[in-house]
Amino acid sequence: MSIVQLARPEIRSLHAYEAAEQVDDTIRLNANESPHRCAIGDFRRPLNRYPEVRPSKLQQALAERFGCPPRQLLVTRGSSEAIDLLIRTFCRAGADSMLVSSPSFSMYRHYAEIQGARVIEVPASAEQDFAIDVDHVFAACDETTRLIFICSPNNPTGTTLPRPDLERLLRERGDKSVVVVDEAYVEFGGEASVIELLDRFDNLVVLRTLSKALGLAGARCGGVAGPRPVIDLLNAVQAPYALATPVVECVEDALRADHLETARANVSVIVAERERLADALRDFDIVTRVWPSDANFLLVRFVDAAAVMRRCAAQKVLLRHFGGVLEDCIRISIGTREENDTLLRTLESIDGDSHG
Ligand SMILES: Cc1ncc(COP(=O)(O)O)c(C=O)c1O
Fold it and tell me: Tens of pLDDT along 277-319?
């Protein structure tokens, strides 16, 4: 059975929107655009014209960066949009379910709730560094489970799912579930992207983003790679003209070799800072645990997380508190060396108080 049989029947019979034809050097009276060029901005493509329905040059460049054939990639408005498209494509409201490990990125559940898809949660234990137990995943799946979201490295724990476990998951779920590997933070870990497994598994879908390692969160650009029939379905669901001309041109520029080199160097600095910060934090008495991380953040447990949040806010340092979900845990994004030093000084002062 083809994996697309898992998609909603009404999506399987949906045709992609037929946009007005776009041909260079023609008189364009077919798209209700303005004939007057807008004076704002200095873009290669005039803003009075609609962008390409799907930006082909960008798709080519991103496919090359991610390491998949262009026809197996859909460029999306951040990877968030890809999560939404997948859930809308595969889950019938009130009938189908999707599985997530817990704790993980909260947007999976958010989009599931909008779609009316049931969420099956498989908890990962803090004592085992939040490793996902694939046997627990198999046990929790039922015949309605269309999607399995694996965030690797995981937000907020920084944990990577070992490759043999992922391959087992892909093999055993076969044509029963699409396994979605969210690699938003993959550049910060030591493992290669699992995109190279696309040739071997036709139930694998991989999410990538430019928001983290490439420093382009404001551009809202990412991508979803997978088997061609799945990408075709997602393409039919995605809005036409999804990416605006300024975004397309900005990202095309950001993918030039010199910018990529700078981004690579920035990632190395962030990884070095992450390890420096982790070592320093482990020496504080107010810190009870620092989990190893393959991402651009650390998950840290404090004696009193609320007090740490208050003192940091007073110093204009914002952190993310996971109280309730993970008792006394705070996720700390890695900043510049100076920003991290400011954080360490603030924590030192709390640590000092705790002795006095
Ligand atoms: C695991 C994970 N996936 C996806 C995203 C969404 O990223 P974006 O929509 O900016 O590509 C985030 C953002 O924080 C994330 O942590």
Answer: 999 999 999 999 999 999 999 999 999 999 999 999 999 999 9
Ligand 1 close to Cβ of residue 104 (< 6 A): no
Q: Where in the chain is the domain with CATH 3.90.1150.10?
A: 259-355
pTM of the model: 0.97
From the alpha carbon of 79, which atom of ligand 1 is closest?
11
Is residue 266 scored above 70 in pLDDT? yes
Compute the distance between CA of residue 124 and CA of residue 130 in angstroms, rounded to an integer.
5
CA 70 to CA 58: how far, in whole Å?
A: 10
Q: Is the CATH number of domain 3-255 3.40.640.10?
A: yes
Pocket test for ligand 1, best of 209, 216, 334 (most atoms within 8 A of CB): 209
Q: Does residue 222 line the site of ligand 1, with CB under 6 A?
A: yes
C-alpha 349/C-alpha 125 separation (Å) is 31
- Within the chain, all domains assigned CATH 3.40.640.10 are found at 3-255
Mean pLDDT of the region 67-86: 98
Give the span between the Cα atoms of 66 and 77, in whole angstroms.
16
Whether 323 shows a pLDDT value over 90: the answer reads no
Interior/surface letters 210-237, b for 16+ CB within 10 angstroms, e for the rest: bbbbbbbeebbbbbbbbbeebbebbbbb
- Fold category of 259-355 in CATH: Aspartate Aminotransferase, domain 1 (3.90.1150)
CB atoms near residue 266 (< 10 Å):
16
- Condensed to tens digits (0 to 9), the pLDDT of residues 181-229 reads 999 999 999 999 999 999 999 999 999 999 999 999 999 999 999 999 9
- Listed in sequence order, the residues at least 6 apart from 12 whose beta carbon sits closer than 8 Å to its beta carbon are 4, 5, 233
Whether the CB of 322 sits within 6 Å of ligand 1: no
Given this model, what pLDDT does residue 5 score? 96
3-state SS assignment for residue 65: helix
Tokens found for residue 295: 């991402």
